[in-house]
Design brief:
The protein is mainly alpha-helical and 224 residues long. It has helices at residues 3-17, 22-28, 41-51, 57-66, 70-79, 87-94, 100-109, 117-124, 130-146, 152-156, 159-164, 171-185, 189-204, 214-223. The N and C termini lie far apart (49 Å).
């Protein structure tokens, strides 16, 4: 299938499912929606399921990413083949993130399935760019859920990174740091204990960034 055909399908989905107020609703949730059609995610996922059968899905994903259409950028990581993704592609895409949903969909649908995941976590969490740094912590969270075979040592190595950057005051980074810690803590009893110890230290710090109102609830969640 060609890129133009996919865009045509997206426009058809928009006519059918993009209800008045969808784009405004996206904006209320902090999604940058200037180039969005307003298609609900479940319909984008259904289209992705069909497109993953295409032999040229990797090339198609690369072309979709270049389009100035929000839904095309959501669709691209859903259909791409992680076996064909390069570190260069990941860096190019992550530097094009402009909205948290694009960041999260790329990380959870594609990036955490590549052999570069751990390397990019350690690179991107050092970045000063908000969505690049967020991507590093989102990868921590999603790989903690998806990579069932990973050793505990991998996730234990992330805890000092979480502690180091827990003072970042930017909302999209702070939420991703919190998400990463919680998902690591849910993997098993060993990681649960390590994550709880870190959460306790962060809670006692005299810093409003690492002591948001939700921290107590998250700490209680880790204890359960």
């Amino acid at each position: 299938m060609e890129t133009e055909e996919v865009i045509s399908k997206l426009k058809t989905l928009a006519k059918k499912y993009a209800k008045p107020g969808n784009i405004e609703g996206m904006a209320r949730f902090g999604i940058v929606s200037e180039t969005a059609f307003g298609i609900p995610i479940p319909h984008i996922r259904n289209l992705a399921k069909a497109l993953k059968k295409e032999k040229n899905r990797h090339e198609l994903a690369l072309e979709l990413w270049k389009q100035n259409i929000h839904e095309a950028k959501l669709l691209a990581p859903m259909i791409d083949d992680p076996k064909l993704v390069t570190g260069k592609q990941m860096d190019e895409w992550v530097n094009g993130f402009y909205s948290w949903d694009i960041c999260d969909q790329c990380c959870s649908n594609l990036f955490d399935k590549t052999p570069f995941c751990d390397k990019k976590i350690k690179e991107w969490t050092k970045s000063e760019k908000e969505f690049v740094k967020r991507a590093g912590f989102v990868l921590m969270a999603t790989s903690a859920v998806h990579d069932k075979k990973a050793e505990d040592s991998r996730f234990l190595s992330y805890l000092p990174i979480i502690e180091k950057y827990s003072t970042d005051e930017r909302n999209f980074v702070r939420k991703a740091v919190n998400w990463a810690l919680r998902q690591i803590g849910k993997r098993n009893s060993n990681l649960h204990k390590a994550a709880l110890n870190l959460a306790t230290r962060l809670k006692t710090r005299d810093n409003k960034t690492v002591r948001p109102k939700k921290t107590g609830a998250d700490l209680q969640f880790l204890r359960n």
